[in-house]
Amino acid sequence: MYGKAFAPEYQGALTKLSVNSSLTDVLAAGTEQLRAAEQTGQHGDAARSGLAVAEAHRRLGQIGDADRAWKASYRAAREADDTAAMAWALWSGGTLARQRGAFPLARRLLQLAADFGERGGDIVVRGYSLAGLAETGRIQGDYDAVHRLHEQLLAEARRRGEARHTVWALEGIAQIHRNTGSYDTAYALFEEAAEIAAGAEDRRGHAWALRGLADVVSIRDGDTERALALLSEAETTCRAMKLSSALAYNHKMRGNVLYRAGRYTEARDLYEQALAEFRAMSEPRGQALSRLGLTKSRAQLGHDRAETAAELAELARVLERIGLRHAREMVARAQEEFGAGDDAMAGAVDNAVASAEAVAVR
Q1: How many helical (H) and strand (E) elements, i.e. helices and strands, does the chain have?
Q2: pTM for the full model?
């Protein structure tokens, strides 16, 4: 049995906030508490209210503000000699670094957060930090390296009856199965995540699970209308909670669904919308994936083949630079889709990836 989902990142005077609180409400309450703590010199309270401020800014896509807030939270925690609060600040910073595509920095900060969490006796922040490390590896395509860690964290979350973390782990494992072609397993895991999230009133986790179900329904079953309906349900939650990043990924997925259905003009428009949203929040991974969808949609609508090849080559460089190791496979699939026998196109992409690898080595 799972209890009601809670948000451990809302701490101190902010524990009354729900996991489903609007991020604008979280930001307002956190800022108010932070100012009060700073005025009275309560460093521990400042650290914990500052954590909520940092997370609200991050999820709203306000990257610069989030960066300043988590660092201020860490400094306040250090002044208070609060190791657990330092761990939470580092977790926030590591999560932000991953969102910005700075994967090596994300790994360093999240590992430090896990270490500090263990030293501070806070098993929740330790678990969240290890989950962050697992998610970072999954996003980069290191499935063999992180699958076992996902399973370990899932077992721990189930044992504690912690719904929110259970949902996260199920969704992560489901995504690995989806990306490796095990669609039935992926669907079952996303479905379980959606059921647990709904029962625990975890609206954010439920929205992500619906997005995963829509993806599988689209690619496995070819059921475009059901997939779009699931995404519409998830979008309602994203808008209500001001989940900027989740909303942008929802729009990108809607583009994927429409592309698979051969509705290329609609897909193009959705990818353009998602790209603008990701650019507004300086999210490089989302930008690159939206650009890929946009390039493919335009190609299907008759865009010049040489220009398509050049765009794919540029995307290969971008994806390699930010550390997404499945970049070659993604570009190769696009190559195949638009004529793998086209030597000029294949050469342009291969050279771009090779150049990116050479730069990475240096």
Answers
A1: 17, 0
A2: 0.85
